[in-house]
Design a protein that fits this description.
The complex is a heterodimer of chains A (about 140) and B (about 150). Chain A is mostly helical and about 140 residues long. Chain A has five helices and no strands. Chain A has one domain. Helix content of chain A is about 50%, strand content about 0%. Chain A is globular and about 55 Å long. With about 150 residues, chain B is of the alpha/beta class. Helix content of chain B is about 25%, strand content about 20%. In chain B, strands 1, 3, 5, 6 and 7 form a five-stranded mixed β-sheet that branches. A two-stranded antiparallel ribbon of chain B has the order 2-4. Classes of the chains: A mainly alpha (about 140), B alpha/beta (about 150).
Chain lengths: ~140, ~150
């Protein structure tokens, strides 16, 4: 260690982002799948604004709602290996989360602080609830 | 995947024991205004359609300075990517280096930069220490790099 700087940089990182989730088709779909469908226009606006995305390790943005339906089945008791996930569950979960966080950029006026979008995803969305419950199974 | 939160994550990692070298070699660098500078990041960047990063991968990717089709493909889902989406310079500050070179603060910007992937399961980083670290340093050295900026992501 050459020099130890004692300053600590703090921000609102643990305060969830506040944004309204657009309404979506509420037919027979699981609420998380429906929610994800409703976020697709916002995700596309972010893609158009910034020209980059981290979604696509396994599924495209358009494929996120469908895999959320699969995660919901796992959360409700089905076996991981039997629902037909298209790849590594960790990478699919990353695609879901990244999709939500990128969509959130078009639903808020300010740029979120580090991990604010994460806190919103985990605590404020049906998808975050589903992914976490599936992860514990 | 659980909500670890930034503050909780920092608290958990504060006491993580890393590898300690027996000796730390010291090289007196050139003055910054004469130095060629590269970025070394642990963000798990890749260029275009390069292979994705997987857990435990201690390899590295070479990032040519003229390629801007970079993808942040760190494997971990516990990783907020919004900063990268809004401004890649928070991870890979190449635009800032170019500005500093134009202002004469640094001598020049390297033609190549390096990405590793952080959040390694093997905290001893044996492959990086003994193989990929020296190999990447050779690439930077061949480009005449004097100084690197490490962006731990």
């Amino acid at each position: 260690m050459l020099v130890d700087f004692p300053e600590e940089v703090t921000d609102d990182s643990d305060a969830p982002l506040v944004c309204t989730i657009p309404p979506a088709d509420t037919g027979d779909l699981h609420p998380a799948e429906s929610e994800a469908r409703g976020l697709l226009p916002a995700w596309r606006r972010t893609m158009e604004s910034y020209g980059r995305s981290t979604v696509g390790k396994v599924v495209t943005a358009e494929g996120v709602p469908r895999v959320l339906g699969l995660f919901a089945r796992v959360a409700e008791g089905e076996n991981w290996k039997e629902v037909g996930l298209p790849g590594d569950p960790t990478k699919v979960a990353a695609d879901i989360r990244n999709y939500y966080e990128e969509a959130s950029l078009s639903l808020t006026e300010a740029v979120p602080g580090a991990r604010q979008a994460e806190s919103w995803f985990v605590g404020g969305t049906a998808a975050g609830d589903v992914v976490q419950r599936a992860g514990w199974r | 995947m659980i909500d670890i939160g930034d503050q909780r994550l920092r608290a958990e990692l504060a006491n993580l024991e890393g590898y300690a070298f027996d000796e730390v070699p010291w090289t007196t660098p050139r003055p910054l205004a004469e130095s060629r500078v590269a970025v070394v990041t642990t963000a798990g960047l890749r260029v275009g359609d390069d292979a994705d990063w997987n857990p435990g991968d201690q390899s590295f990717t070479v990032l040519p300075a003229d390629r801007r089709d970079l993808v942040l493909s760190h494997f971990s889902p516990n990783f907020d990517r919004t900063g990268w989406i809004v401004d890649p310079n928070v991870v890979f500050p190449l635009d800032r280096l170019v500005e500093m070179a134009a202002e004469g603060v640094i001598g020049s910007v390297a033609d190549v930069h390096i990405s590793f992937m952080g959040a390694q399961i093997d905290h001893t980083l044996e492959t990086i220490r003994l193989d990929t670290g020296p190999a990447s340093a050779r690439i930077l050295s061949d480009d005449g790099v004097d100084v690197v900026i490490l962006t731990p992501v």
